[in-house]
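Side project, low priority. Logging it here so it doesn't get lost.
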Amino acid sequence: MTDIQTLFSCSSVLLHVIFLSCFFYVHIRNCIVVECLNPCPNSVNDCANCRPGTEGWQKCSINDGYCSNICMKGYYGCRCDKKCGHCMPDNMGAVKCTPFFGYCTTRCVDGYYGARCDKECGHCLPDNKSVVKCDPIFGDCERTCSNSFYGRRCDKKCGHCLPDNEGLVKCTFLFGECKTACAGGYYGTACDKECGHCLPNNDGIAECDILSGHCTTTCVDGYFGKKCDKKCNHNCIDPITNTNKCDKVSDNCRYGCVSGWYGDICGKTCNNACFKRSCNQQSGRCDAGCVSGWFGYTCLNLCSKTCFGRSCVQHTGQCDNGCAHGWYGNTCNNSCSNTCFMTSCNQQSGRCDAGCVPGWYGDMCENSCSNTCFMTSCNQQSGRCDAGCVPGWYGDTCKKTCSFRCSNILCSQETGYCDSGCASGWYGNTCEETCSNTCSNVSCNQIFGLCDVGCTSGWHGDMCNYECSENCKASICDRETAQCLQGCESGFDGNFCNKTVKTGFDSTLVGLIGCLIGVTSSVILALVVVLIRRVAHREKRYGNLETSTQEMTEPVYDEIADTTGKGFRETKIVTY
């Protein structure tokens, strides 16, 4: 059989696997695998209780000292460092127990019990040979108990039982009930409970019922209850004997309370403000009145320190002599506003009758004038900034800010209009609209937003919101007419460069047709002119003789070439 290769250990589960040919233990505790193959060099003492292997020396783990083989006789444990209990020696006189748990492989010697025989039997009654014996598993005594003890293991002591005629204390084996009466001052079937503070008898012994514990006499002073086990409140007093005393049944302080206390059990304190700290024992009312400065039935309430002379009516607390300066109300507990002029106000309403300090308004001067009022001054009733606003603000109370787009952030107090104009790039009453970014220098008229200084290149219109024709050279056109000022791109013609220029046969044909149309138009125009002149001449010849015969000059219109640079042809009137 080879050496045990591994040992396993886990804290809650113990598993033993026993083979018929040999003992092979798997010890599960913390799931730690221990190698036990190498001997411990220079550590013989650490393995002293390990059984030698076939090599002739004790072997244990170099890590934790766990024995590689089973322990020497009389020892157990992973390191064989635990001694077997009071196990009965075998025929060879050797004490043996299981190597890992120390369970005795034989029975226990007399007087001990348990799987390891490490528990001592109780106070069992010895047999005829004075040997104490008990159950090897549970420790129950095989016979009864010795005197003064009881229980299955005879490990419990009898109570205060009255000794028998032989002076021995005896009680029942299982429950410890006294076989005689209880000693003085104790009660209960086991005489294990002490009597309360019962009044002692003539022999000086406090007696009580053996079953209930109720005192057979009354209680000593300072205690109450059927068992006299409850203490009277220390404030209860018998003024005759000057001792702590209460009703023996109900614990009421029927004889009275010490000074300054009241209630059924004298558990409540009279108020310190009661005159001479004296109060009614039942209600706690200060019947003798209150010390100065206090009021109420039990003098719990403090007169207001703002009462003049700190004097008030005991039952209502009202200041009977008026208020100190700066206070108002029935009990003078309300302070006049420190914004009242001279901190003076009406004693009943608190109204600032003398007015407010500068910067405040309202009946009680509780509202602050806007800090944007000029000189922080406002109307006391309405809070209106009558003196105007500081620059940058407007409105009745100057709570509204002028637009930051107003020139110098100045605006009308009433309307908020930017009366001084707008910052560059903005327009409108409050300069809320942006000038078109196609205006030259992003500058425009404040009222309508018209681009007064012109448009940037490529745009036209009053607000420069229309693009010049892409056929205009350099995309430059007249702001008002949109006519291309620097001519057209190649292939286009016309004032607006919206006509395409054609070449070749088509162009020639177009030119001929144009000339033909032009000649025809000129002939028609000449005929119309001649006809008109003849009609006019006939009217002159045969008209009224009173009509002046002065020859009228007729205007002749000539189209002059464009000299304006704006794409227009001027019409000149010539008189012949």
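Brief comment: Confidence is low (pLDDT under 50) at residues 1-45, 537-576.
Revisit when time allows.
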